[in-house]
Amino acid sequence: KVLTGVDDLQQVKVLEMQVDTRENSLGNFGVYLPNLRELKLNNSLLVSVRDLGTTLSHLHILWMARCGLSDLDGISSCSSLKELYIAYNNISDLSQLTWLDHLEVLDLEGNDIEDINQMQYLGLCCKLSHLTVEGNLICLKPNAESAEEPDYNYRAEIKKLIPHLEYLDKIPASQT
């Protein structure tokens, strides 16, 4: 109530805060915020997405940039997400995102995605239209083991794996 400035937490639709879950879990704080649609946790310290609990199924937009996240286990409990901003973390495995049926916008800038095949998981997110991956190793080469190839074009490779994508790194995906 102190953070939101309102007594009736039913009214809260947007919340911005910084948290450190190394010492305290947030538990199932979503129970108290049934109408929360946007949650900004940028620059927090989150050990795991699981620390958000399992009661944010009504959330549409989630910001977790620069939170020290290394995996997305538990993101499936945010089943209504339309936009997910997780730039500048340590994420390399995108398999958990396949459960987000409504995902339209995904920002993965500056993470640890080293294998272009991770994009196959995003191909299963049938509503995904805007994707940002700049600052990941896959922009330079298809996987960590391969040498940099002058003919390699990450935009063309991603477009093959996610044919319904409209924008890649803020440029129309059709432009390779």
From TrEMBL:
The gene is Lrrc56. Transmembrane segments: none annotated. This is LRC56 protein. It comes from the Eukaryota. It comes from Caloenas nicobarica. Keywords: Leucine-rich repeat, Repeat.
